Every structure is written in structure tokens, then in C-alpha cells.
Amino acid sequence: MTGLRAVRRWVADHLVLGLGLLVLAYTFIPIAVVALMSFNDGSTSRNVYRFRAFTTDNYTNVCGPNDLCSSVALSVGIAAAATLGATILGTLAAFALVRHRFKGRSAANLIIFLPMASPEIVMGSSLLALFVSSGFAGTLGFVTILIAHIMFCLSFVIVTVKARLGGLDDNLEQAAMDLYATESQTFWRVTFPLVLPGIVAAALLSFSLSFDDFIITNLNAGQSVTFPMYVWGAAQRGVPMQVNVIGTLMFVVAIVIVVGNEIVRRRQEKALAR
After folding, report:
1. What CA–CA distance (Å, rounded) separates 94 from 199?
2. Which whole number is the average pLDDT over 107-134?
3. pTM: predicted TM-score of the whole model, two decimal places
């Protein structure tokens, strides 16, 4: 009985840890497979999960397949422009919804969630109908993709920045103004630095959503080919191993950004503690 109780206690103490490790494994095993396949000596193959031999040639010849790098460059350009536009507009909208009272505010808060809740095929086809009816049928491409991406990234930015604004302590701004700071000085030296982590998080989320999107992009791209569209097209005849290289590099960049931000945050906390 004593041994059984010890086992039960050990299981109870480590259950949450074990479940957490299982969730992490479920999340990262597919990423590990992509990273492994980026070193696969593969000529283009429809069976992308068959490891043939180890090689680093995929990293030295990333742009080997036709139009791969051009599609990546297009996706990065659209994602960067969409992130900039959605972050600026979304941040302004979030401040307006949190800091001001106006008619229709409740309705605006509800409408914000509609793009997030709507299926992408519905939003994509609706935007396509809008562009066609507006005379953009023959000019679908970078501009229409950019408009579409800003549209669906905007809601995520507003929600993220609103959450950050909602958690701010108003006493900090009041204390700054009590110390004779002007409204402009209070905003740039107190409010904005406190909201900045939420804005950065919203921007990173927007970039990821824009770079990764396929359905909305495919409906409004015209002759333009983004990276997700390239992968979908290549899958019909054989996915080049360099696609896994791009995926691995994007994951590494994301990890570097997160780890770098955490290091900077801890250094700032230590500096303030001193």
C-alpha cells in the first residue's frame, strides 16, 4: 500500500508536467520533421517524408527551384506592408475603443470579431466580389492581396492591443501628469512604452498570419504567386526540399526574436532592480 501511495503521489505531482510535455511534443514534432527534411538529399519528390541521405546542399542552393525565392520575396513584402498598415490602423482603433466613449462603440467591438470568426473562404470570396465589382478584375495582384491581408489582420491587431491597454494602470498616467508632464509627454514616455509590447506582439502575429495565408490570397492573387501558393502548386508534381529550408529558417528567425526579446526584458528588469 505504501508503494501504491507513493506512485499515486508521484503521478499527481507530475501529471501537469507530463501533459505539458505531451502538448509540446505534439506541437514541435512536425516542426522537427520539417527541419530534418531540410537536410534531405532529395531531388524533388512527391514523397517528401522519405529521408534518403544527409546533405547541406539545400541550404547552399535555396533558390534552386524556379520561382521559389521570388515567391518568398513576394510573401515577405506583402506581409511586411500588411503588418505595417494593420498595426498602425489597429493600434489607433484600439486606443479609440478603449479610451473614448462614442455612439456605436459596443457595435464596433462586436464587428471587430466578425473577420476572426468568419471562415476564410467567405472573406476571400467576398473580397474577390468587391474587387471585381470595383473594376480590379484585370489587375488582381500585389495591391489586392495587400488590401485583403490588412483587412483580416486588422481585427487581430485591435484585439491584441486592446488587451494590453485594458491591463494598464491609469494611475501611472495620472502620476506623470501630476508631475507636470504634458499629455504628449505622458503618452510618449509612459503610455506608449507600456503598450509597446502589445503592439510588437500584434505586429508579429500579423506578419505570421499574412505570410502563412493561402485561401484569401489564392482568391485575390490573380497571376501573383506567394510562397504558400507555390508550395500548393509544387505539391501537385513534387515538393522541392528547399521548401523545408524556408520553413526551418522562418522558425529559427521566430525563435531568435522571442528569445532576444526575453533577454532584453530580463536585462531591463535587472537594471530597474538595481
Report:
1. 10
2. 86
3. 0.82
Asked if pLDDT for residue 272 goes beyond 80, the answer is no
Which whole-number Å values give the CA distances from 111 to 115, 142, 155, 159, 263, in the listed order?
8, 27, 9, 12, 37
Rounded-to-integer distance, Cα 257 and Cα 193, Å: 18
Rounded distance, CA 158 to CA 156, Å?
Answer: 6
The secondary structure of the chain, three-state, reads CHHHHHHHHHHHHHHHHHHHHHHHHHHHHHHHHHHHHCCECCCCECCCCCCCCECCHHHHCCCCCCCHHHHHHHHHHHHHHHHHHHHHHHHHHHHHHHHCCCCCHHHHHHHHCHHHHCCHHHHHHHHHHHHHHCCCHHHCCHHHHHHHHHHHHHHHHHHHHHHHHHCCCHHHHHHHHHCCCCHHHHHHHHHHHHHHHHHHHHHHHHHHHHHHCCHHHHHHCCCCCCHHHHHHHHCCCCECCHHHHHHHHHHHHHHHHHHHHHHHHHHHHHHHHC
Domains of the chain listed by start with CATH number: 68-224 (1.10.3720.10)
